Amino acid sequence: MKRIALMVFRLIFKAFYYFYHICRCASREDISYEESFRWIKRTTILANRAGRVTIDAHGQENLPEKDGFILFPNHQGLFDVLVFLESCPRPFAFVIKKEAADIILLKQVRKALGSLVMDREDIRQSMKVIQTMAEEVKKGRNFLIFPEGTRSRQGNHTLEFKGGTFKSAVKARCPIVPCALIDSFIPFDENSIRPVTVQLYYLKPLYYEEYRNMKTTQIAEEVKRRIDEAIAAHPSKNAKWPAKRS
């Protein structure tokens, strides 16, 4: 990927310094969750700038006052988590698929934040992850999970949101924060290093009192509806490539 290569090249003299500190956060229990998040956030901001990616985030004021909430965004690509790591003012962990859990740097980041690994082919293990996340949220930790289960590969169009992912929120009785990503597929999925603006909208949360009588499939439909409306209301800020000439 050209953009990842650009990030590494432009940060070559700082990369080892920040990688060392993230590894340190991942391996030492005496380093707090908050300190780990600060190191990862600093690294992410530098990497995004080096990769010529601008994060245009809105709606942080919609985040609940108290910690113990779950972010539910649409899933566009491998860059999605980096958008949240730069823009979210509150520490959070995330749920990552088993296939990506041991990629270098991502592995150290997930360990440093106490993120959870989900095997999508193992229903029992997946439900255990949902239960663990609910228990952590009850303790006041914030999480991010993608309700589509996989990236859409359809640009700014969303896939069906799976009701099962919302069981964690129901069990924790916590606020659900819908989040709309726009053009987050471009940085890593497009073989280019052109400047890119990725938009993120933190939408108004659904509190337990609002969804307590809804089925998880109904919650999923409502969250998807809100995200789709936000995407439709905010067009891309990136110019399209000119058509190829024969």
Describe the structure using short key phrases.
246 residues, single chain, alpha/beta, globular
Task: Describe the protein.
The protein has 246 residues and is α/β, with parallel strands linked by helices. Helices cover 43% and strands 14% of the residues. It has a seven-stranded mixed beta sheet with strand order 1-7-6-2-5-3-4, with helices on both faces. Helix 1 packs across helix 3, helix 2 (12-27) packs antiparallel against helix 3 and helix 2 (12-27) packs parallel to helix 5. The mean pLDDT is 93.
What are the segments in which pLDDT stays under 50 over at least 5 consecutive residues? none
Task: Identify the quaternary structure here.
Answer: single chain
- What is the averaged pLDDT score? 93
Please state the structural category: alpha/beta
Biggest sheet record: 7 strands, mixed
- For the termini, the CA-CA separation is 26 Å
Global geometry? globular
Rg value: 18 Å
Q: Determine the number of helices (DSSP H or I, runs of at least 4 residues).
A: 10
Widest sheet: strand ordering: 1-7-6-2-5-3-4
> How many runs of DSSP E, i.e. beta strands?
7
Order of helices and strands: HHHEEHEHEHEHEHEHH
